[in-house]
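Re: that chain you flagged

S.,

Sorry for the slow reply, it's been a week of failed gels. I finally had a moment to sit down with the sequence you sent. For the record, here it is as I used it:
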Amino acid sequence: MNNPPSVTEIIKLLRKEAPTELPNALLAQEARKIQKNKLKLGPLVFNNLPTSRRSVINGTGILLHTNLGRAPLGQAVIDRINNVLAGYTNLEMDLQTGERGGRTAYLDVLFECLNQKYKPVWVNNNAAAVLLCLSTLKKTTGLTRMIISRGELVEIGGGFRVPEIMKEAGFDLIEVGTTNKTRLEDYKNALSEAPGVICCVHPSNFVMQGFVESVEPKNLIPLCSEFKVPLLYDAGTLDADEIRKLPDGFDFVSISTDKTLGGPQGGLIMAKPDVYKSLLKNPLYRALRLDKLSLTALEVTFEAHADKTDRLVLPISQMLNTNLKTLQERVREMMKLPLQNFKLVEAFCQSSWGGGALPGQTWESVGISIIPIKKANDQHQKITTYLRQNNPSVLASIVNGEVTINLTTVLSHQLEAVKKAIRNLDIKLFMV
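Prediction finished late last night. Pasting the C-alpha cells below so you have them in one place:
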C-alpha cells in the first residue's frame, strides 16, 4: 500500500497544477485536510482552494456589480492612498495648530462645494446611515411611530430588510397606502391620528410599473412642516448634480457613496444644520465612522465631483461617458486577434447600474462575442469557466445565445489582459 503524499509534496503539486499566491501556511492547512479526508488530487480539489482578493475584469456591463466590489476606485485614488497611508497621516490632527482635529474636516469642506444647505455626516455604508438616523431620532424626539408607504418596505441584497432595522431601532411601523398606490392623503391621515417620523425609502433593486402611484419625497416636506414631525429620506443613490439641487426641508437624507458618486463603500447623511450635531453625539456614531482608508478614497472622489473632473478621475464616470463609437473601435481592434478555434463577433448589448442603484435603467452598449468554430456540449459553461478562472479573472455573460464580454465595464488599461485571456482560451480550451 502506497504511503499518502506528504504535506510538502501536496503543496508543491497545488502550486504547480493550480497556480496560486496563497501563503504556505494556508496551503499546508489545505494539504492536511486533503490527507485527512483522503481526497484525490484533481480539478475538484484545486477548484475548492480558498481565493484571496484578486483582480477581476468586469465584462458583464453591470457597473456597480455588488459581487465585484461595486465601483472600482481608479488610479488617482490608489496613488493618493499610496502617498498618504504608506506611513503615518494626519487622521485626527490639525497640522496648523498641532491640536487634535476632526477626521472628516476636509471632507466636510469638500461637501460644501456641492451643497451648503445640509451638513454631512460620514459612516461606513448606507445601512449604517439609516440606523444612525433612526437611533438619533428616537433619542431626540421621543417619537415611536415610523410612518412609511407599504410600497417601500423593501428588502435589499443579503436579506437586509428595511422594516427590520426600523423595528430594531425601537419604532412601531405604521404602514400607509397599498403596495402599488400611496397618496399624500395617506400620510396626512396617519399623522392626524398621532405624530410620528415619516420615512421615504428608495426602491433600490426593483421597479413597479402599471397601476402605481407614489409621493415624491420633496412633496412630503410641507406636510411634515405643518405637523412639525421629522422627515427621513433614504435616497440610496444621488449623483453630484442631485446633491447640489437637493431641496431644503428634509431632516436627514442618506445615500451610498459608492453608487452614482463612484467612490469607496460608505454612507453619507445630509442633515439639517440644526440637527446634525445630534448624530455626532450619538454613541453609535463612533462604531459606524469611517476609517482612514475610506476617508482618503472619499477625498479624491469628492475633489473630482467638486471640480467636475470626475470623467478624468473616476472609472464609473469614465464608463458612463464612453460613447458607442469608442467601444466599437475597441471591438474592431480585438477582432484582429488570430484565433484557431474561435471567432470574435461584434455584439450589441445592454448595460445597467446594478448594486441597487437606479433599477430599470439600461443603455445601449457594445461587446465582443466569443463563438467556437466547432459546436460542443456545455460550450458556454466551458468558455465562461475558463475565463473566470483566468488570472486576472474575466467575467462574461450570455447575450443572444453567445458568450459575450460587454466592453462598457472593461477599463481601457484592461483590454490587453482581455486579449491575452482570449488567446489563452483559444490555445488551451479544446471544444470536443
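What I noticed first: DSSP finds 18 helices and 15 strands in the chain.

Talk soon,
D.
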